[in-house]
Design goal:
Blueprint lengths: L1 H14 L6 E2 L4 E2 L4 H10 L3 H14 L6 H11 L3 H14 L7 H10 L3 H12 L10 H7 L5 H13 L8 H9 L5 H14 L6 H9 L6 H13 L5 H10 L5 H14 L7 H6 L6 H14 L4 H13 L3 H14 L7 H10 L3 H15 L1
Antiparallel strand pairs: 1-2
Helix pairs in contact: 1-3, 2-3, 2-4, 3-5, 4-5, 5-7, 6-7, 6-8, 7-9, 8-9, 9-11, 10-11, 11-13, 12-13, 12-14, 13-15, 14-15, 15-17, 17-18, 17-19, 18-19, 19-21, 20-21
Amino acid sequence: MKLRSVLLVIFSIALGLPARAWSQEDDKIRGLNREGWLTVLKKDKDTKRRRAAVIVLEVYGPKGRGVVTGLCEALEKDGEPEIRREIALLLGRMGPDAKEAVPYLAEALKNDKAGVVREAAALALGDKLSPFAHEQVLVFAGALKDSHAGARAAAAAALNSLGEKAALALPQLTHVAQDKKADRLPRLYAVQIISRLQADQAEAGPLLAGIATDADAPATVRLAALDGLGRRERTSKEEAQALVQVLQDKTVELRRAAAASLATLGEQAAPPWTQVQARLQDADNTVRFQLIRVAGIIARDQKEAVTALAELAAKDAHVENRLAAIGELGQLGPTAASAADALATIAAQDARAALREAAAAALKKIRS
């Protein structure tokens, strides 16, 4: 009843009438029943009254006989773009009970002359109706080239909501991801979808690496590309090098993302170890923390990594990072024997009990 009351107030304001207009006895609003308001929407020449009909029909809801059908017909035929836009958004809010509207919304996205209507149709399909919109993948793909920026962004968002079912649109999404002149949101969604659906495909690596290292690309798009590189099971030296290159970026969020992806890649981060080691002194605690993880992963094959971890365990400015370095040394066991003296000093002399205990525990693992 709360939603109904709010909608009735909006309706009354739209017509300049008193808000008290609902008759529970005969199920009428302002003297008209559901069929009457459907007729208003279909035939009335007054734009204000047709707009009021849209508001009233939301009160009746999608389960009201003929409501969804009537709205779909008006979406096709009403001459006022703003009313078609409101209808598209309303059908989206109605959700699964209005699933029969999906092809009408797809048609509006594809062919409506008004950009705001095409955008609204894409928004509706990408929200509560998304579970029923997977057959419209190619319509969304076509809308990625829409002349209206809002429609392009909404279509890309709708594809993102489809998950694996967006695979048919990958050629178009790849084109958007590569297009340096593309809008930020469509390009962001395109990179996210490619990262999710093509993470193990060979051609995805160079694409993501190129975007990640493009200083002119929006930061959010580069972050998505960095995340995608971290998802790959097999990474080339060039892709690992791209991550290392971003470690030198002035934007700390990008450095953090690059470091996190290197940590996720594990042993594949070994080839550029020398450059990674140089970044262990990064000014940001989080970047150093992630690179400590990298050092721990590759230290079995890189003796210099053990030395670096020992230095960080003793001197890093952040306690959590020192604990992380000590933990990595302990996990290495006898491989980290060269760090035993440094750990022993921490265990015996450090002012923090947590560090003393962690160092003592790591020593036991190394000496076992």
